Amino acid sequence: MIKRLLAGVAAAGVLGGLGFLYYAWYPPIAPIERPNPASFSAEQIERGRIVAAEGYCAECHTRTDNGGGPELAGDYKMDTPFGAIYSSNITPDVEMGIGAWSEEAFRRAMHLGVSRKGVHLIPAFPYDHFTKMTDQDISDLYAYIMTRPAVHMSRRPNELPFPLSLRILQAGWKLLYLRPGVYKPDPRHDALWNRGAYLAEGNAHCGACHTPRDLMGAEKKGSAYDGAVVDNWIAPALNEHNPTPTTWTEDELFQYLRFGVAPLHGPAGGPMSPVPHRFLSTVPEEDVHAIAHYFADVDHAAEREKNDKAALARAMEESKTDLIGPNVDPDAKLYQGACAACHYNAAPTPVLGRPDLALNNALWLDEPTNLYQVMLRGLTAEEGQSGVAMPSFYNALSDKDMARIAAYLRRTRTTLPPWTNLEKKAAEVRKTVQPVPVNSSH
User: Fold this and answer.
1) What integer pLDDT is reported at residue 429 of this predicted model?
2) Which residues cross the membrane (predicted)?
3) Cβ neighbours of residue 203 under 8 Å, at least 6 residues apart?
4) Beta partners for residue 84, in sequence order
5) Structure pTM?
6) In the chain, which residues have pLDDT < 70?
7) By C-alpha distance, which of 216, 209, 200 is closest to 230?
8) Coil, helix or strand for 58?
9) Which is nearest to 71 in space by CA: 269, 214, 274?
10) Is 255 in a helix, a strand, or coil?
11) Are the beta carbons of 292 and 396 closer than 8 angstroms?
């Protein structure tokens, strides 16, 4: 009996292994000669440019360290809990890029995460979102990419330990987490909402940054848009769990996504800054409206904004108290000297580009990470509101100074419990920031 049981288990294991290999195997797709750029119409190339901008392709496929690199030539370093991953060259170079890829091979990579040669792609390439894209959008994107300059540049090898370096294991990840299929409109919502959902959940892959991940590196589907840590910043929640006292209304979202600054929430900084400034500012306005419309529903803006007037009045009143009467609080004096000249608001509403910090996400998050990042890095004139810069305080403020300012703002500008270990956290964040030269005009 025991022998028969063991034999049955062994047979099941063999059959299961063969079944997995059958599931995991994809045939190579024959290479082609690089398509003639003249074979694509100007209209299709422009549509593809819009698709590329709404998917932020150049952001992850352009090297930023070591002096930077040519656009779309890859080698962008992505630090993950499993090791560093370097993006691929997607220019139409035949040897180093994807110039030998047919449109069929390109579509398979986008929808199923499999390369032309039949190799499984690492889900740092968010094909779990791109699978929702229509064939038309992928065809247009293919036309755009195949008409870009070919760059003969290799990327650094990934730094994944064995056995994670075995690409066949990605098939197991897909079995658990990938649900292939083009986005299907939700009949309960209008066309604008569905267009926004298609972009946000598909090509724009918003959840890739704003949804926390599990131990396997997959997005936690039950926590969609709950916020996550990205490149040493916190990507805030985009749903009803966003803690800011004023609501991310459809108009606030549109202003932020289109122009990089929202009157009641402040500017886009860190990894988010290129999204409005480099990409969404170049696409049809109606698509940005659609994304804003979708997320205003996700965060239940219509139900929440009834409290905005009271929150705004409270923020304006708190801003005034900093400069009224003899203030003996040494933390307040430090804040006044470093920050209040720009962030003081005497008007009934915040000054655009210089938001009152009582309304800013950074003070309402569970950690002061984003507040410290902005203190240390500053904001250039190309970030946030166009032409408005904030200097870096990397050299001007010590970790202890930053901790004092953070503690002061948290207790005077929010109704939340105080942050803990502030000085230690400041030191940790400082390690992730490149020192700013003393004579820098940043």
Assistant:
1) 97
2) 5-25
3) 51, 54, 55, 129, 130, 132, 133, 137
4) 79
5) 0.91
6) 1-18, 20, 22-23, 318-328, 345-355, 436-442
7) 209
8) helix
9) 274
10) helix
11) no
